[in-house]
Amino acid sequence: MPVESGSSAAARQAKQKRKSHSLSIRRTNSTEQERSGLQRDMLEGQDSKLPLSLRSNLLDLFSQIEREFENLYIENLELRREIETLNDRLAADGQTFEGADLAKGALKTKASHSTSQLSQKLKTTYKASTSKIVSSFKATTSRAVCQLVKEYVSHRDGIWDLSVTRTQPVVLGTASADHSAMLWSIETGKCLLKYMGHQGSVNSIKFHPTEQMALTASGDQTAHIWRYMVQLPTPQPVADISQTACEDDVDFSDKDEADVEVDGASDCPSVRVATTTLRSHQGVVIAADWLVGGKQVVTASWDRAANLYDVETSELVHSLTGHDQELTHCCTHPNQRLVVTSSRDTTFRLWDFRDPSIHSVNVFQGHTDTVTSAVFTVGDNVVSGSDDRTVKVWDLKNMRSPMATIRTDSAVNRISVSVNQKIIALPHDNRQVRLFDMSGVRLARLPRSNRQGHRRMVCCSAWCEDNTSCNLFTCGFDRQAIGWNINIPALLQEK
């Protein structure tokens, strides 16, 4: 019997090893091959215009995607088990990770280094799903308190603008797309007078500084000056409304807008004839305001011009041209003969009429989108808001760069600044109203919970400096104006 040499025996063992290995591989993949074969047979039996090779490639790609998702699912399960283990260890050490405790900033840590690491890892794991909770770690001891006091509901379309009288009796005025302007009792919410002299949307309303006269601008290409006489009703006792913190995030459905009643103005007296009609524009008159002293008014139009009129003669004094696109707003300085106009051309312009012989103009390009409004403050500041989601505070003595820039998450509409407290109220497209100080520090956000707040875009805000129950008013496309009581802590006012 021949005896194998050592080298031939080793070669035969290696060959058998390779053979068994190849057989084991075929056995392992036989199920997957059978499944792919069945799927290809099914593809051949289906009616499709795609070539079989292309369909086969697609099937292979989908199989790879499925495997990737399976791996991700397995990893997700393992992470969940790890999180549960970490939670159990934290609970054993006497710690909690509940939303209520986090909101109070009470996530307690022990001196142990290992426990501190577990807390940090757990917070990192929950970061994406608990962003609102984590944000509440910020100090809230000086938060402003905002209380909804009264709703003013009677308009049949969106409210573009509102204003508060500067003389007694103190009333609220609203301008609406339903072709009317209304005067309201602030305390009772009752409509006192309705102006129906315009043939188009009423886009703006402003009151004379000393007399009972109102100035309205309209889509009918005119501005009207009309007189009013109102008598305030006796205020009725109102139910106590619990104060609501301004950072409430609870929202409600838009379908509630259908519940708004519009019967409040049925018995309201009306005025249909203007005292003075100002006609010179060739487009929609979007805004109007009184110059200091009340002897002249300025109007802003979509015809790219702002006009200065004499109130007594209703004659055109100056046509302020230079904007490249439609104007969006105009505002006058409370103490000086200064006018600021804003436009869709991303600029706002400062017009100086203090010297009768020289009418200078300065152009400011601080925004990248439509400048929706620019307003004066009592001091030497201008505040501008834009669709580029920023609000900027400017110094009239140095307008090269803004003093402060406020960045928001939504386009900003017609802003207003409190004379006494120097607080900027920002109405947004996303139905929010936020309050900032002049240095750009956020003070509050008006509540939108428990059916409070606006259900549509907020178009305008206006402050009331008189001793009334409301010191801030807002209006929007939900056809209502709202009166708010804003209580700013003394600590914030000093800042």
Explain briefly what this protein structure is.
Helices cover 22% and strands 33% of the residues. With 495 residues, it is α+β, with helices and mostly antiparallel strands. About 14% of the residues have low confidence.
List keywords for this structure.
5-stranded antiparallel sheet, 5-stranded mixed sheet, 495 residues, alpha+beta
Can you walk me through this structure?
The chain is built from 6 helices and 30 strands. With 495 residues, the protein is α+β, with helices and mostly antiparallel strands. The strands form 7 sheets. Strands 9-1-30-29-28 form a 5-stranded antiparallel beta sheet, with no helix packed on it. Strand 12 and strand 13 (296-301) form a beta hairpin. Helix 1 crosses helix 2 (52-92) and helix 2 (52-92) packs antiparallel against helix 4. The longest helix has 41 residues, at 52-92. The radius of gyration is 34 Å and the shape is globular.
**Spatial arrangement of strands, main beta sheet:** 9-1-30-29-28
Helical content band: 10-25%
Low-confidence stretches: 17-30, 96-115, 126-142, 239-245, 252-263
Shape: globular
**Whole-angstrom Rg:** 34 Å
For the termini, the CA-CA separation is 108 Å
Q: Main sheet, how many strands, which sense, barrel?
A: 5 strands, antiparallel
Which range does the strand content fall in?
25-35%
The number of distinct helices, counting runs of at least 4 residues, comes to: 6
Number of strands: 30
Helical/strand content category: alpha+beta
Overall pLDDT score: 80
